[in-house]
Specification:
single chain, alpha+beta, five-stranded antiparallel sheet, elongated
């Protein structure tokens, strides 16, 4: 029996550790859950010798470091030129430092396949944490410290993703932690009491149900991550730290209480001030996934430093301008640019890199004040510049900027592409919520094949049929973009831009999401004042021979600058057929069916900001939301006294009459203590009889004489003795209730002593 208890205890720990490890799997753009589970199992086995035999715990101190070494050897083989222990240690330390440097840049999600060794760092960190927990729980048999260690790992997991998607994790943690605590106690006993296991399982289940009810009843507040890596990190009202590697949660930034100035821009032409582009989509969200050039070398120029920016792709025709940026109260790891940057002028040297998306990235965030100038080309395009450009895209553009985790429309072979689409999604159950994408795309695009017309139609469809709101309804969808397209049809710029980019890629058009700020408010001297509430996301699509061109599907937004390219700028498609389709009933590509639509979208944005609406503002709870919480509370109120009574009376119905008599007598003192009567250990039965007679007018002398005779061995206990003692307990509680009142009676049911305590 003892071996089975140990096995159950071991399995409970492995399950608990796996819950914590898998919770942090979403830190990466690709899942490494199998490796994390294997790491947890290895750590548990290395920390288990003390569970097999108490005196074998020192063996774990040898196995745990050996397991760490084997983990490194299997995941990162040593090159042939590395010899000796010292060189091996140096090699692995350097690889871990490389992973730490990548991790320190806060580029979430981390790309474990990029060769940066951050995956090795994460696996080793999980092994160390779970190995320490295994040593405490298994070898030393201290369950509580191990649970705390796993809780730290789980807590980190809840900070890297939307906690609403991880409801299973805290529930599983509570259940498995309860099992571990019960089983750890049973390991110290020769006999495993079934009532102990039942009480522990009931407590863990009630805790899990209560947690589930709280999460369900307070869906906004309870499911908010402690730190959401996908959002802009707003450190304080005066100094913000802005990162641009994920699709930002703009409602957190669009807050009237923190609407501080971000920068002042001097430019002859208005533009979106772009920080970065998000070119990777994993079926759930958009993230950067960009590769960076080597550090650019500056060219000194009269006390300043000039960084020429290499051109990666074709550049749209436009106007060469100089833009001066004065950033205030802000830390940023990307430099803002309007258009396509050619060079950077700054007063001091910086570690500058250029992404393959032509974004300027610095290794360490700069701020809180920063002045620099950018020479850039701001596109000036007409619709005729983009029509009939064809699909002769560069190979690297096709490889990254048309990639989706499910097949594009052009990849659906056969005479029945919709059937092929359904089959493809069936074989990819993780993306089942995108099943309606094919039909939606047919409704928007139909048989249109020209990339520019497709972009116009998608842009206009979103601008005219979807609603702008900073507080979209919450859904069970994993991807906010799938929820936006198929369920809520409500969102802010993040949803509009991300959804349009998915639709363009589904049609084989290279697209990515740009993040940064809109032009801001222009002053009389031509300066643009950019506030935090000007944070924005839009779309860039690639056209052969032209390059990346901006589009904006968000209602109320217009592409700024001299000349633009999209329906948001109000251009008419010169092709009659294409123009009629893109424009809807109006016949103009940039005019929505409701001519007040765009203005209303702007008003909704401003009203939401003034009113403080945001995705983090809890909505009023409906009646149905309280039902699970009420049911759980009712269960606790009923189950606690009932389970307590069953547990206390377990000795009254088994064993000999003498043992049952002793258990019944012990309940007399327990009942007195429940009502606030503190009985010293030295109290004799005769003194107890005098107390009952003097304080409660309850005469139990004759019965106590019989009980003492049984205890001293003068006579055997009988069933009549048990019945009389039970009657005494009932009368004792009745008189205590009458003496102390109803409040004390209720407290006694739950084992809570009354406020006043009487001494015998």
């Amino acid at each position: 029996m003892k071996s089975s208890r140990k096995l159950l205890y071991f399995v409970s720990f492995v399950g608990l550790a796996a819950t914590g490890a898998v919770a942090i799997d979403r830190i990466g753009s690709r899942s490494i859950a199998p490796l994390l589970l294997a790491t947890v199992l290895a750590a548990a086995l290395a920390g288990a010798p003390g569970l097999i035999h108490r005196r074998a715990w020192p063996v774990a101190l040898v196995l745990l470091p050996l397991g760490a070494y084997l983990l490194l050897r299997t995941q990162l083989p040593i090159p042939s030129h590395v010899h000796g222990v010292a060189q091996q240690v140096g090699f692995y330390l350097e690889q871990l430092r490389s992973g730490a440097r990548t991790y320190a840049r806060d580029e979430f999600p981390l790309d474990f396949a990029a060769g940066t060794n951050v995956g090795i760092l994460l696996l080793l960190a999980v092994y160390v944490a779970m190995g320490l927990a295994a040593f405490m729980a298994l070898s030393l048999r201290k369950a509580l410290p191990a649970i705390v260690i796993v809780l730290v790992v789980l807590g980190f997991g809840l900070t890297i993703d939307d906690a609403a998607r991880l409801v299973w994790a805290p529930l599983a943690f509570l259940l498995l932690a309860g099992c571990m605590l019960v089983l750890s106690r049973s390991l110290r006993r020769e006999r495993w009491r079934a009532t102990d296991a039942l009480a522990g399982a009931a407590t863990a289940t009630i805790a899990a149900l209560l947690a589930l009810s709280l999460l369900g009843a307070t869906s906004v507040a309870a499911s908010k991550p402690l730190r959401d890596w996908r959002t802009w990190e707003i450190a304080a009202a005066d100094n913000a730290r802005l990162g641009f590697d994920w699709m930002e949660n703009y409602p957190r930034l669009l807050n009237p209480t923190t609407n501080a100035r971000v920068m002042r821009v001097r430019s002859p032409v208005a533009s979106y001030w772009r920080a970065n582009t998000l070119a990777s989509f994993d079926g759930t969200t958009w993230f950067s996934g960009a590769s960076y050039s080597d550090e650019l070398a500056p060219q000194p120029a009269s006390g300043s430093y000039v960084y020429p920016v290499p051109l990666s792709y074709a550049e749209p025709p436009g106007k060469l301008v100089t833009e001066s940026f004065e950033v205030v109260s802000t830390y940023t790891d990307h430099l803002f640019t309007g258009g396509s940057p050619r060079s950077l002028l700054i007063a001091h040297p910086v570690s500058l890199r250029v992404t393959d998306a032509h974004a300027l990235r610095v290794d360490q965030p700069l701020g809180p004040t920063l002045d620099y100038s950018i020479t850039a080309v701001i596109p000036q395009l007409k619709p005729t510049d983009l029509l009939n450009r064809g699909r002769d895209y560069p190979a690297d553009i096709l490889g990254q900027d048309t990639s989706l985790p499910f097949p594009a429309r052009s990849k659906l072979a056969g005479p029945a592409p919709e059937t092929a689409w359904r089959i493809a999604i069936t074989h990819r159950p993780a993306y089942g919520e995108w099943l309606g994408l094919y039909q939606l795309n047919q409704d928007i695009v139909g048989t249109t094949t020209d990339p520019y017309r497709i972009a116009l139609e998608v842009e206009q469809y979103l601008r005219s049929r979807f609603v702008y709101s900073l507080a979209p309804p919450r859904t069970a969808y994993r991807s906010p973009y799938a929820a936006f397209l198929f369920r809520t049809k409500t969102g802010y710029c993040q949803h509009f831009a991300g959804a349009m980019a998915v639709l363009l890629r589904f049609n084989g058009v290279p697209a990515r999401v740009a993040v940064g700020f809109s032009a801001g408010k222009q002053t009389k001297d031509g300066t643009f004042i950019v506030m935090r509430n000007d944070a924005h996301a839009w779309v860039e699509a690639y056209f052969p021979g032209v390059g990346w061109v901006p589009f904006d599907p968000t209602p109320g937004r217009m592409i700024p600058g001299v000349g633009a390219s999209s329906a948001s700028a109000g251009f008419v498609d010169p092709s009659a057929a294409g123009g009629a389709r893109a424009a809807g009933s109006s016949g103009a590509a940039g005019v929505s069916a409701d001519p007040t639509r765009d203005a209303r979208g702007v008003r909704e944005n401003r009203d939401a900001v003034r009113g403080g609406a945001s995705a983090g503002t809890p909505e009023p709870f409906g009646t149905a939301a309280w039902l699970p919480l009420s049911a759980a509370l009712a269960l606790v109120l009923v189950a606690w006294p009932l389970g307590r009574a069953v547990h206390r009376r377990r000795g009254l119905r088994r064993g000999t009459y003498t043992g049952r008599l002793q258990a019944s007598l012990a309940l007399v003192y327990i009942d007195l203590k429940d009502y606030g009567v503190d009985v010293p250990r030295s109290q004799t039965l005769d003194e107890t009889v005098r107390f009952l007679r003097g304080h409660l007018d309850l005469d139990a002398g004759a019965l106590v004489d019989r009980v003492q005779a049984v205890l001293f061995g003068s006579r055997a206990a009988t069933e009549e003795d048990l019945a009389d003692l039970a009657a005494l307990r009932r009368e004792l509680k009745r008189r205590m209730r009458a003496r102390r009142g109803r409040v004390s009676a209720v407290l006694a049911l739950y084992g809570l002593s009354a406020i006043s305590t009487a001494k015998l």
